[in-house]
Amino acid sequence: FGISSNETFVITTTNRTEVTEDNFSKLVYDGVTLYLLQSVDQMLLLATKERIEFLPHYDTLVKSGMYEYYASEGRNPLPFALAELIDNSLSATSQNTGIRSIQIKLLFDDSQGKPAVAVIDNGSGMTSKQLNNWAVYRLSKFTRQGDLESDHSGYVRPLPVPRSLNSDISYFGVGGKQAVFFVGQSARMISKPATSQDVHELVLSKEDF
């Protein structure tokens, strides 16, 4: 790498976890992206890309959730899909010590591409590993790989109260990916963990699949 013998450097994961002699054996080697940095908190000069490998059935994403939504028997299915997306924000902001902010925007500006639904919140944010886990359909805490980057925090279920914006409003529990592909053709997740300076972005699209 062109590093001089007297130069100090660290190797970290994309979540800025330093790889040491103690945790090296816990790394899952296939497909793991590592940073070679001068310090753990060094600013990145360029954006990096990490490929997420998983093999769901084609219909799993592009048609998922359709049965549940249409099974609402006469009700407009769109609110149920939006409820799934809002649920993610409710979970992300459930531990906020200050104001919980959740915005829903309908974007129709052609200069920004196709119309879109944007759900924006000031929650805890997701690490690259949490985004990876979100992308993999039906990935439970029991089947995730036991490497040093595994995150089993998962969904924070609100206390049981009458269904409202302070409750778990996900009617069918089919998850955000199914809701996204019920409404549109692609998903873009942009998240900055509260404990990190890095901004992570995940893109899933029907066209890519």
TrEMBL record:
GO biological process: double-strand break repair
Protein name: SMHD1 protein
Organism of provenance: Erythrocercus mccallii
Gene that produces this protein: Smchd1
